[in-house]
Write a structure and sequence with these properties.
Length: 124
Amino acid sequence: QVQLVESGGGLVQAGGSLRLSCAASGRTFSRDTMGWFRQAPGKEREFVAAINWSGGSTYYADSVKGRFTISRDNAKNTVYLQMNSLRPEDTAVYYCAVKSGTTDYRLGYRYQYWGQGTQVTVSS
């Protein structure tokens, strides 16, 4: 049974940093794309960042480019999202997800597995 468990969310002031982790279990994910999405209250889920299986290619939403960094450790089946210079508009539930292949990484419906989410709240 595949499981994705996010951690690291919390409350932080604007300008602060948080590091999210997503631990995957149930099978090997070393050949999959891993991504982060977020959903704010009253808004649709949106793509945040993705990383290919080797970690050699990373992709970001324009809204987080230069502030967030995605990375992965295949030996630990874990993906990370380092979030710096946080803004109130980054407040959302953050979800990690896994998909096979590297295409359509911005499309949530192409991901096969999802975590339960972790809340990130940025105060102004």
